[in-house]
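Quick question, first post here. What does this chain look like in 3D?
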Amino acid sequence: MTQLDTWQAKAARTDAPAATVLIRLYVGAVFLFEGVQKFLYPDQLGTGRFDRAGIPAPGLLAPLDAVFEIVCGLLILAGLLTRLATIPMIVNMLGALLITKLPILWGDAPLFDGKSGWWDLVHESRTDLAQLCGSLFLLIVGAGACSLDAHLSRAAVAVGAVDR
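> Answer (accepted):
Ran it through. Tokens below.
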């Protein structure tokens, strides 16, 4: 077994129960749908939103973010390379929270005019926090028994047993 095979096997290995598919479906679907909507509604959710939030190079970063959300969302939905796919989405959610939601605390959030303080922050952050927690959960436990990762892991173990 090569070092790459070992890394891939470790990344795909999961002992999580089949019910983990529920978290994968939620997290993956939200990322997928949000990524698609950045292209469908660029002024409200894509380039325009990135520009209003003060994110530099919105014409580059909004479509790039959308592509990452679509690709990683699909990977998470399929349960393929799930742990790897959650890493950019964790960074994505941390960025969204720090750049667009945290300024709500002091009433200086360009996307949330008239909102300020703790309760407005937690209200507006609920989806980002759910996505962050769901992604962290999948990073820790893996895709679960009903996933392509689990199927590939079982197949690799079976091939390894045959090779012996």
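Residues 20-40 form the longest helix (21 residues).
The CA atoms of residues 72 and 85 lie 5 Å apart.
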